[in-house]
């Protein structure tokens, strides 16, 4: 061995010893890394030995890059009741499991998933478990998750569950134990996928060398399983979300993008002729499969929860007639009831003839008199929890641990006396621990921290298939249980270390799909958001250009005397327009204060920052349609414009900031032009920008290219339209009114002229779906044609102040007509469902 190689070996050994020297599992708590005698076990020695090739600085740098990617791509989550998005808290170490151990766990998950499917089929079918006394009728009928209208409804394809999940940990004996079954609409597979993508980018060599099992094949099989039971051979699959304020909306958007599903909300859907359809800009389109990510009772306000605004009236009827496949079936959440866990062992023995491979903690339902008596006698040694899922905002597995019973004993005893059937009691079981980094004292070391692993199984055409990985939650503190994502809880990727080399698998398999060029269908709501995304970006740009003009940086001598003079007539017009647009609080502010407020004011609804935040809010509803680069450009623009209001920046710094902001907006525009497919979505983004640019340019011209415009006014007009260079190349003399008007209003070659925008709008509308079947133009098309003709045939001298104001109002009317035709904006709108030809 060479001296260098020997040095590397010694350095790795020193690092491993330093990292693990203080690692001490808690007494009586199973640990993934060390056994009770302090010996390393499982896959961890193999993983840490390979990780030891990197020093602390390199490891830190790689995790910094991972955190940056999370930020750039907008991976986030919400806590119920909190409108803020929280950056996704990826832990610094994966949970690593050997293949043999994983195969044992997977076999138990498959067995448990099959049992859950059988129980659901019985509860909503013949009811033999209740008839034979294996399951109390009160535990079924008394559950809020029991959907009585679904009794007797057989799901197309025969599957109640398309996706099953179980939260697991190690028991005291080191074997895997189930903490909870997830059958309602299990969350987490998308975050597991994002964790894998981020961590693989950070440690590609480590991931490959350890032969980590890949996830793509599982997701492909899951998508195939969703389609089972659909009436059509090439079904349209939708993912139903409650919207952008869902705590896991980002995950849902990521899954829709990765799996090629249509992300829809309840307002996007309508029942017609006994089948579910999507409202699109092309008319109603048949939905064959619905992967729901909302609770069961919200799915149909007509037959289930009448207060729901998230579902579709009449959807249950589509389930009855077999025209729709829903995963998971409404009512499947009853399997998450704590009461069922008390009877699951006996049910398993009855249906399967043996005990479950994966057991859970021993459970007593307090609605059973014998169980209640036993619970009362042993209350201090048990954990008490509600039978049903706690209300939104509460910890979903809210557990009253034994140490809390002394203070609340009287209250609990009263509750058990008055409504015992609302509670279950379980034997206490500490969560297992896994290694996590800790820097207490400055040195990097490994410490044990509690974790919960969520494992997923998909119902595929070939049977149940377990994801070779999962969604792991790990606590930052030893005394906090990671039962849900919240402050102090991180997520971890899950690496299954294969015995054999792992084949590279992609979601797209060569030869598996026939070639086709179908643009896809755009829901009306998505079109609305894309349109306004374009408009808000353009509004932000207009405000920024006004600020730059006011600060006097136009590169032309014609208004050089105005720079810094807040009382110059042209400057007063700029200030008045910013005030009219709501970008500033008052037009008589000091120049620096005005510029900073127009750029970064949070309390001024028309500031560039507020428009960029509005664009970002629209983009948040379109995550499955926007690239990561677009989201990163939006984040950069927001970060640039978010200036501390208490910090007054000098004018020169504000000018530089405004110019950099224009660069970010130019990047966004370039991404839309070069990266978006020329489908309906792109048309609406560009329509929004063209509409808003035409309105803003006409508004500029009304003030800076009117009959009384001065040379300074005309110079600002050229600056606002980025036309100084073109004007100087075309005209050797100084600025004059008609040439300026011609360039910014009528020149079809100038990409910022109104004529250019109107022509682009007409082209976009010509490529979008039509409502009439007689070939005659629709109202919005007529308006666009009239405007295009006026700008194509007009002369500069004709566009005086009155004409400019009239034309600005006409473009506003055109925007309203487009909204009326394509967007879900009111009871009198021309709804797309009036279109003929349902496909």
From TrEMBL:
<dbReference type="InterPro" id="IPR007296">
    <property type="entry name" value="DUF403"/>
</dbReference>
<dbReference type="Pfam" id="PF04168">
    <property type="entry name" value="Alpha-E"/>
</dbReference>
<dbReference type="Pfam" id="PF14403">
    <property type="entry name" value="CP_ATPgrasp_2"/>
</dbReference>
<protein>
    <submittedName>
        <fullName>Circularly permuted ATP-grasp superfamily protein/putative alpha-E superfamily protein</fullName>
    </submittedName>
</protein>
<feature type="domain" description="DUF403">
    <location>
        <begin position="522"/>
        <end position="823"/>
    </location>
</feature>
<dbReference type="InterPro" id="IPR051680">
    <property type="entry name" value="ATP-dep_Glu-Cys_Ligase-2"/>
</dbReference>
<dbReference type="InterPro" id="IPR025841">
    <property type="entry name" value="CP_ATPgrasp_2"/>
</dbReference>
<feature type="domain" description="Circularly permuted ATP-grasp type 2">
    <location>
        <begin position="94"/>
        <end position="474"/>
    </location>
</feature>
């Amino acid at each position: 061995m060479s001296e260098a190689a020997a040095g590397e070996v010694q350095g790795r050994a020193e690092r491993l010893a330093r990292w693990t020297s203080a690692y001490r599992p808690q007494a009586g708590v199973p640990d993934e890394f060390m056994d009770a005698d302090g010996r390393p076990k499982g896959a961890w020695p193999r993983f840490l030995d390979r990780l030891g090739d990197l020093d602390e600085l390199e490891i830190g740098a790689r995790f910094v890059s991972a955190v940056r990617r999370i930020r750039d791509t907008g991976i986030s989550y919400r806590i119920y009741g909190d409108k803020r998005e929280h950056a996704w808290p990826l832990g610094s170490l994966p949970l690593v499991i050997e293949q043999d151990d994983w195969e044992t766990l997977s076999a138990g998950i498959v067995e448990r998933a099959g049992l859950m499917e059988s129980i659901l089929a019985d509860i909503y079918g013949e009811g033999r478990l209740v008839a034979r006394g294996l399951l109390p009728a009160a535990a079924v009928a008394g559950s809020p998750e029991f959907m009585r209208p679904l009794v007797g409804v057989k799901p197309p394809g025969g599957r109640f569950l398309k996706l099953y999940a179980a939260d697991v940990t190690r028991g005291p004996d080191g074997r895997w134990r189930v903490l909870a079954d997830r059958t309602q609409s299990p969350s987490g597979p998308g975050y597991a996928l994002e964790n894998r993508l981020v961590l693989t980018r950070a440690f590609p060599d480590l991931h490959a060398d350890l032969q980590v099992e890949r996830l793509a094949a599982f997701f492909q099989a899951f998508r195939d399983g969703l389609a089972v039971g659909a009436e059509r051979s090439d079904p349209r699959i939708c993912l139903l979300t409650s919207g952008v304020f869902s705590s896991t909306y980002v995950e849902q958007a990521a899954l829709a993008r990765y799996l090629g599903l249509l992300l829809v909300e309840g307002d996007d859907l309508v029942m017609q002729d006994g089948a579910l359809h999507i409202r699109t800009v092309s008319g109603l389109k048949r939905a064959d499969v619905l992967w729901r990510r909302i609770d069961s009772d919200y799915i149909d306000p007509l037959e289930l929860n009448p207060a729901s605004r998230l579902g579709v009236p009449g959807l249950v009827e589509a389930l009855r007639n077999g025209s729709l496949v829903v995963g998971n079936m409404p009512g499947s959440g009853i399997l998450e009831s704590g009461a069922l866990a008390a009877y699951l062992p006996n049910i398993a023995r009855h249906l399967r003839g043996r005990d479950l491979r994966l057991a859970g903690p021993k459970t007593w339902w307090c609605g059973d008199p014998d169980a209640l008596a036993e619970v009362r006698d042993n209350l201090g040694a048990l954990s008490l929890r509600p039978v049903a899922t706690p209300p939104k905002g509460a910890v979903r597995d809210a557990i009253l641990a034994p140490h809390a019973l002394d203070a609340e004993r009287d209250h609990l005893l009263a509750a058990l006396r008055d409504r015992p059937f609302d509670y279950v009691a379980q034997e206490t079981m500490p969560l297992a621990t896994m290694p996590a980094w800790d820097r207490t004292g400055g040195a990097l070391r490994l410490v044990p921290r509690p974790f919960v692993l969520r494992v997923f199984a998909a119902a595929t055409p070939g049977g149940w298939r377990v994801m070779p990985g999962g969604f792991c939650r790990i606590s930052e503190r030893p005394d906090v249980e990671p039962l849900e994502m919240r402050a102090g809880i991180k997520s971890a990727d899950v690496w299954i270390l294969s015995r054999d080399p792992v084949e590279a698998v992609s979601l797209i398999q060569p030869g598996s799909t026939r070639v086709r060029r179908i643009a896809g269908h755009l829901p009306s709501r998505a079109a609305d958001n894309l349109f306004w995304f374009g408009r808000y970006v353009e509004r932000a740009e207009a405000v920024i250009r006004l600020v730059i003009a006011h600060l006097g940086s136009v590169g032309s001598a014609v208004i050089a005397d105005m720079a810094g003079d807040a009382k110059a007539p042209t400057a007063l017009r700029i200030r008045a327009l910013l005030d009219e647009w709501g970008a500033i609080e008052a037009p008589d502010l000091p120049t620096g204060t005005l510029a900073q407020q127009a750029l970064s004011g949070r309390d001024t609804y028309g500031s560039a920052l507020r428009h960029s935040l509005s664009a970002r809010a629209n983009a948040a509803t379109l995550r499955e349609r926007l690239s990561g680069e677009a989201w990163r450009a939006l984040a950069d623009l927001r970060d640039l414009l978010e200036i501390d209001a208490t910090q007054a920046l000098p004018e020169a710094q504000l000018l530089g900031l405004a110019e950099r902001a224009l660069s970010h907006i130019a990047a966004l525009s370039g991404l839309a032009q070069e990266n978006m497919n020329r489908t309906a979505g792109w048309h609406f983004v560009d329509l929004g920008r063209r509409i808003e640019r035409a309105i803003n340019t006409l508004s500029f011209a009304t003030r800076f290219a009117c009959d009384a415009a001065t040379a300074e006014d005309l110079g600002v007009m050229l600056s606002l339209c980025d036309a100084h260079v073109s004007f100087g190349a075309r005209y050797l003399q100084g600025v004059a009114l008609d040439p300026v008007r011609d360039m910014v209003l009528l020149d079809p070659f100038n990409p910022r002229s109104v004529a250019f925008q109107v022509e682009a709008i007409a082209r976009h509308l010509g490529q979008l779906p039509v409502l009439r079947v007689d070939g005659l133009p629709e109202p919005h098309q007529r308006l666009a044609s009239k405007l295009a003709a006026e700008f194509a045939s007009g002369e500069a001298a004709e566009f005086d102040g009155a004409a400019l104001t009239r034309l600005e109002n006409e473009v506003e009317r055109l925007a309203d007509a487009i909204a009326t035709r394509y967007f879900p904006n009111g009871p009198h709108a021309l709804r797309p469902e009036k279109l003929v030809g349902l496909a």
